[in-house]
């Protein structure tokens, strides 16, 4: 992979429609002059665009030199954001859910998986800590415990499942059972909050025409014999262009939050929900209601291919309950420059200069005239917003309250 590049985008600047300069944390590589390179761009573990490398630039920073890529896309609507993963089109990339055995404070960790020819990029995605494994062939058979060698040292990593897509061929399975029988009201008390979680998360992340949004957010359901086995998948056939994020995101987030709760990890449940969702508390109550009918006297299992089967129990219930108790909204002051904005879906992104948290700020229709691109470009802004995101998070989401400009740069 010496002449191929891959890595994590840690800064992005738009030059013109379809043309960007990005800097990042890259795997050890060398780009040859005069050779044409195409890279694939992944966001939320989903391939969203391809770019040509038009030049390589070395920047001098206070922390040493930084390699930047000048990129162009045939699509004038394409954009690059902090947190995107870019991988040479000739390389293979597989995504895994991981836990770090050793503490690491950076936004991303880039290195080599020891005793392999596989490069690794670890970063925080919408549904938790994620490993992008990059090599010249598929890497789907990673060991459960690996060590990554990086410029900052050796780091132990636990791999606990491949990051996959939920669809009709690979649905999320819910199995419920009680002795001597399943009561209809208990089944409904599980299915209604389950539906509310999936539909609610989908609506938060996807800007779909109001008339179509309700139908497309609804899960597709079919039943299997054996206790009550309910198979759920996105209702998006032929409609992927209407989704801003992968349609399977709510299903994967549901599984990962419940897996974390099953392990009794209150802090991670709070982090995962509060860093990704404006209505985090509401969605957590849906999870609590879903588990409540069965955690003492019955069985509720969650299955997804490539992951371990979850059997939700009293610890799951109590972990979610404690996470709800701990989560609370707070006002935050965020100062920095807006580096990405979507005036159609009404959000912008800004990295706070003091905490280094990467914020996504969502604003309502009544404020849309305050974020004119000609006004906010290259201006430092101080934003007051409401959030559930914890102070030690690396990424956060907040609801806009007001702002002031700190002056042109």
Q: Which short descriptors sum up this protein?
A:
six-stranded antiparallel beta barrel, alpha+beta, six-stranded antiparallel β-barrel, single chain, OB fold (Dihydrolipoamide Acetyltransferase, E2P), 43% strand, globular, 7 helices, 409 residues
Q: Helix/strand-derived class?
A: alpha+beta
Oligomer: single chain
The global form is globular
Order of helix and strand elements from N to C terminus: EEEEEEEEEEEEEHHEEHHHEEHEEEHEE
What is the spatial order of strands in the main beta sheet? 1-2-5-4-3-6
Q: How much helicity do the residues have?
A: 10-25%
Tell me how many strands there are. 22
Mean pLDDT: 82
Task: Provide a count of the helices.
Answer: 7
Report how far the terminal alpha carbons are from each other.
40 Å
Summed up, the domain count is 3
- What fraction of residues sit in β-strands? 35-45%
Radius of gyration: 22 Å
The biggest sheet amounts to: 6 strands, antiparallel, barrel
> Uncertain spans, ≥5 residues at pLDDT below 50?
none
Break the fold down into its secondary structure elements and pairings:
Layout: E1 6-16, E2 19-26, E3 37-43, E4 46-61, E5 64-72, E6 85-88, E7 92-100, E8 108-113, E9 119-125, E10 128-135, E11 145-150, E12 153-162, E13 172-178, H1 184-205, H2 210-217, E14 220-224, E15 228-233, H3 249-262, H4 266-274, H5 280-291, E16 298-303, E17 310-312, H6 314-326, E18 330-342, E19 347-351, E20 358-362, H7 373-376, E21 379-387, E22 395-408
Parallel strand pairs: 20-22
Antiparallel strand pairs: 1-2, 1-6, 2-5, 3-4, 3-6, 4-5, 7-10, 7-12, 8-9, 8-11, 9-10, 11-12, 13-15, 13-16, 14-15, 16-17, 18-19, 18-21, 19-20, 21-22
């Amino acid at each position: 992979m010496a002449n191929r590049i891959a890595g994590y985008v840690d800064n992005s600047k738009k030059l013109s429609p379809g043309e960007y300069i990005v800097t990042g944390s890259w795997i050890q590589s060398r780009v040859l002059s005069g050779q044409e390179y195409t890279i694939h761009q992944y966001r939320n573990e989903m391939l969203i665009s391809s770019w040509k490398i038009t030049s390589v630039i070395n920047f001098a920073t206070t922390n040493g030199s930084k390699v930047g890529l000048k990129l162009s896309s045939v699509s004038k609507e394409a954009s690059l954001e902090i947190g995107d993963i870019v991988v040479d089109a000739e390389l293979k990339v597989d995504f895994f859910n991981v836990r770090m055995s050793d503490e690491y404070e950076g936004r991303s960790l880039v290195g080599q998986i020891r005793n392999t020819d596989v490069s690794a990029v670890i970063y925080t995605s919408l549904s938790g800590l994620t490993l992008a494994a990059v090599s010249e062939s598929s890497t789907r058979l990673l060991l459960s415990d690996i060590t990554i060698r990086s410029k900052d040292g050796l780091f132990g990593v636990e791999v606990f499942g491949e990051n996959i897509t939920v669809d009709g061929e690979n649905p999320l399975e819910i199995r419920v059972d009680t002795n001597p029988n399943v009561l209809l009201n208990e089944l409904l008390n599980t299915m209604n909050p389950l539906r509310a979680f999936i539909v609610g998360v989908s609506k938060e992340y996807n800007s779909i025409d109001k008339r179509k949004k309700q139908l497309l957010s609804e899960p597709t359901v079919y039943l299997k014999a054996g206790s009550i086995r309910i198979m759920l998948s996105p209702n998006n056939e032929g409609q992927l262009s209407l989704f801003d994020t992968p349609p399977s995101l709510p299903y994967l987030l549901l599984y990962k939050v419940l897996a974390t709760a099953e392990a009794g990890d209150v802090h991670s449940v709070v982090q995962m929900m509060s860093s990704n969702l404006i209505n985090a508390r509401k969605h957590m109550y849906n999870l609590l209601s879903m588990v409540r009918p069965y955690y003492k006297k019955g069985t509720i299992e969650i299955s997804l291919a490539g992951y371990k089967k979850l059997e939700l129990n009293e610890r799951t219930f109590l972990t979610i309950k404690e996470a709800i108790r701990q989560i609370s909204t707070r006002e935050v002051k965020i100062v920095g420059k807006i580096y990405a904005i979507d005036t159609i879906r009404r959000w912008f992104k800004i990295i706070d200069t003091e905490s280094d948290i990467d914020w996504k700020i969502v604003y309502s229709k009544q404020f849309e005239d305050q974020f004119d691109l000609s006004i906010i470009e290259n201006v430092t802004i101080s934003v007051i917003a409401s959030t559930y995101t914890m102070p030690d998070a690396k990424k956060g989401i907040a609801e806009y309250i007001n702002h002031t400009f700190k002056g042109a740069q």
